Amino acid sequence: MTTDIFDLYESNVRSYCRSFNAVFNKAKNAVIYSEEGRDYIDFFAGAGALNYGHNNDFIKEKILSYFNSDGIMHGLDMYTVAKRDFINKFNESILKPRGLDYKIQFCGATGTNAVEAALKLARKIKRRAGIFSFMGGFHGMTLGSLAATGNIQNRLGAGVQLPNVTFMPYPYKFMKSFDTIDYIDNVLNDANSGIEKPAAIIFETIQCEGGINIASTDWIRRLSDLCKRNDILLICDDIQAGCGRTGTFFSFDRAEIVPDIVLLSKSISGYGFPMSLLLMKREHDIWQPGEHNGTFRGNQLAFIGAQRALEYWEEFNLQKDVQEKSDFIKNYLTNEILTLHNLLDVRGIGMVWGIDFSDVGGAEISKQIARRCFEFGLIIERVGRNDTVLKIMPPLTIEMELLQTGCRIIKQAIIDVFKENGLNV
Predict the structure, then answer these.
(1) Nearest CA-CA partner of 148 in 173, 127, 123, 176
(2) H/E element holding 203?
(3) CATH numeric code, 4-55+317-420
(4) How far is CA 46 from CA 9, 206, 390, in A?
(5) What's phi and psi for 367, nearest 5 deg?
(6) 381 DSSP β-pair partners
(7) Its pTM surpasses 0.90
(8) What pLDDT sits at residue 25?
(9) Which SUPFAM superfamilies match (predicted)?
(10) Where are the domains of the chain?
(11) What b/e sequence results for 323-335 when a residue is b if at least 16 CB atoms lie within 10 Å of its CB, and e otherwise?
């Protein structure tokens, strides 16, 4: 294996390859293979872009058929059969059963563009510049979305001020005993708070990059009510937590709310193709033609994959499968991981879970454990403040045997690293 050419020619901005130092050449469902023939269990899933696994046969068959038919490959926002079929399927399978009357805007290729579109639209609708976001939130790396992202190191990369966003406390750790919704309400209605009413509040029901911080259904409902009372748009960033990751298609389904705007990307295409979209209540669609556009906002292969993924979700009863695997992960972490040290913490829902080492060695320990996992054949990411949380996020389609093996690898890696660092196990 040689990586010299990457070191010589690829920008220093590369990041994941620094943690997973192998050259990969193929993948299937929840396993990635290096060019040396070693297999790795995937608990990373393309940072959430591969909910349906690598090279899902059910989806691939439809994509290959489209390829062989000489179907349109690049269509901007022109009318195409692929787009029409996806819209029909998405409306029939996802929106109508929930009573959602959303219009769909196809944005640029990545999630950050959907965030940019949402912030622009909210400001256009309400004619206010301000946005409220939450501490610990992650919404992207372009200037508008980065302004709504809390991580200081990420923000410093902008090189300019990131204005017009005010950060509010999220119900996380020490803030759980603090009524964050009541605080926001007081800020909005205090004539001397110094903070003007925003156009929108953007939030994640689960802060995945923030460390698997989960908002309760009560908190989500209260946030929705607060926005309605104060004439503020509610934007749900479901880019990483959506598309079935929490067990239902939208992560906000459990709270039974209807956000004004919903953002989807990552796994929406079903096959790892670039795709992002914005769902908006019908009355909010006040765009002028071409007012927000992009050359690759009509990814035809993504439309094909996305439609087929929705069919897969239904035909294989993926929601039930996710619940069974979620139950296994929860029980394993509770019975096998938490018992390793009394200061460990685990959090999660559906098939996104985190093991928090912030009180047990912090970032250095979590880094050693992630590295040891990779040595044992498991790809797993670190997230949260100072990267102290090990994030478990395999494809939803992972075989139960592989899921069990991956969890055992995590346990062994923790035991080994704890012993090496003199931590009691």
Answers:
(1) 123
(2) strand 200-203
(3) 3.90.1150.10
(4) 23, 18, 15
(5) -65, -45
(6) 391
(7) yes
(8) 96
(9) PLP-dependent transferases
(10) 4-55+317-420, 59-315
(11) eebbeebeebbee
